Amino acid sequence: MPRSAFVWRSGSKASVPPASTHPKRTPAASGLLYGLSAYLLWGLFPLFWPLLEPANPLEILSCRIVFCFVVIAIVLAARHELGGIRRLDRGTVVRLCAAGIAIAVNWGVYIWGVNNGHVIETSLGYFINPLVTIGLGVVILHERLRAVQWAAVGLGVIAVAVLSFDYGRPPWIALTLACSFGTYGFLKKRVQASPPEGLFVEGAVTTVPALVLLAVLAVSGQATFVGHAASVGHLILLISAGPVTALPLLFFAGAATRLPLSTMGLLQYVTPVMQFVIGVLILRETTSLALLCGFALVWIALAMLGFDGVRHRHQAPAAAAA
User: Fold this and answer.
1) What pLDDT, on the 0 to 100 scale, is given for residue 313?
2) How far apart are CA 31 and CA 9, in angstroms?
3) Total domains present in the chain
């Protein structure tokens, strides 16, 4: 159609139709939507895993691993990217396999904690995860910390001591979750693979043991997906553990490629805040003054880390220019 068809005259001046009032969504806006979706879904997990009972945590974990692997395989096949797995070098595959084991431990402990009334403690694990990540950097990478970072780590240690006193034991669930997820992030830091490819390898190394475990549970009569305990609704819930796990992981991957690390770092606290609120207000888990003091120390430490990170980012360009 000729250009004149889109132009009309009003007096002596040419006019053009007004531009669309619906601007395109920017990558940052899409990334924020993906990131919020991922962390909001993770924050609702304490309400989902109890729905899979009477399945025990091992059966739930095995179903989560197997059906998540199936979903990721379908995604890769639909994108014609399954062949790309063969281009991964041996070192990358080894790191991804180790990462798969670390995240399986994380998932298993989290499911056990949620289904045994420790939602508040599981939220603590994800609150202290940044402090554990810093510790890994010091111990393994020999990184040097600034004074504020040392102070934040010290507050984290004091918080763990306070919570240990309140629980009558060290907060093993929180510490295991923080260490396993910190290890997972450390192993994934320099992996040269797309997020779906990485998830595929991680799932491949854990799916075979998960299938073996499901078979053992079935033979021993402890599985709920076969026998008298099985029902269509229960089977659907067990199968849904796969998409429920894969969907936020894919959302997270979409956010990570569109948002700066500073924004991702702030968004990550959406999940433990939601878990804490669910544990206190919905599941009515027991709280105490010592527990709230321990959490307050962790929150102060995280605020110090955030403030120090922002200040350091502003100072770095000026120092480089000088």
Assistant:
1) 67
2) 42
3) 1
